[in-house]
Design a protein that fits this description.
With 178 residues, this protein is of the alpha+beta class. The protein has helices at 8-26, 76-83, 106-109, 156-165, 169-173, and strands at residues 30-33, 44-47, 56-62, 71-75, 89-95, 100-105, 113-117, 120-124, 126-127, 140-144, 149-153. The protein is built from five helices and eleven strands, in the order H-E-E-E-E-H-E-E-H-E-E-E-E-E-H-H. A hairpin with an 8-residue loop joins strand 2 (44-47) and strand 3 (56-62). The chain is globular, with a radius of gyration of 16 Å. The N and C termini lie far apart (34 Å).
Length: 178
């Protein structure tokens, strides 16, 4: 396997993280990020005062929402790691299809919710199992988009760059004029 920093998913994640870091600095946070060539336990540590009381972990997910359901999510392995953190965790989704950055605290996202979609009741969070024998389909957890707080709009150049880096079928199937 190649260098961790050279993986396409790592490059996409690092770019999305840079957008979140830029936003956090603009709104007055002090941030700390990892400077290692390996996987790390979380993406960003943020605080306004450098005191433990207002410190939180930021996890960045560079991905579009699901098209068939009003939700988004990530790998269950990551979720289980975040739930065990002793510092509050905020999840930031950088969604090139919506052209938005949105998210919420993990404590808020794990609250049980009912969402009606196309006449059907969906109960969140949704936990899915991995598809046996297919490493592309990991176990996931999904949260409703209505639980997300708007954070920032993405600029056209950011959207274009994210879409050029993604392996998602969304950008390939649903071309935009960006």
């Amino acid at each position: 396997m190649g260098n961790f920093k050279e993986l396409d998913t790592t490059k996409l994640g690092e770019y999305a993280e840079s957008l979140v870091v830029e936003y956090l600095i603009e709104v007055g946070y002090n941030i700390a990020t990892w400077q290692v060539d390996a996987s790390h336990p979380f993406d960003i540590l943020a605080t306004k005062t450098n005191h433990y009381a207002d410190m939180f972990i930021v996890e960045v997910k560079a991905k579009a929402h699901r098209w068939k359901y009003p939700d988004t999510g990530f790998d269950l392995d990551d979720f289980e790691k975040y739930v065990g953190m002793s510092i509050p965790v905020k999840i930031f989704f950088v969604d090139p299809e919506k052209g938005k950055m949105y998210g919420n605290t993990l404590d808020n996202l794990i609250q049980k919710r009912e969402v009606y979609h196309k006449g059907e009741k969906i109960e969140y969070p949704i936990f899915t199992k991995a598809k046996e024998g297919d490493s592309r389909y990991k176990a996931k957890v999904f949260f409703p988009l209505e639980a997300m707080l708007p954070i920032a709009d993405l600029r056209e150049d950011e959207i274009k760059k994210l879409k050029s880096m993604t392996s998602s079928n969304h950008s390939k199937k649903y071309k935009t004029s960006a």
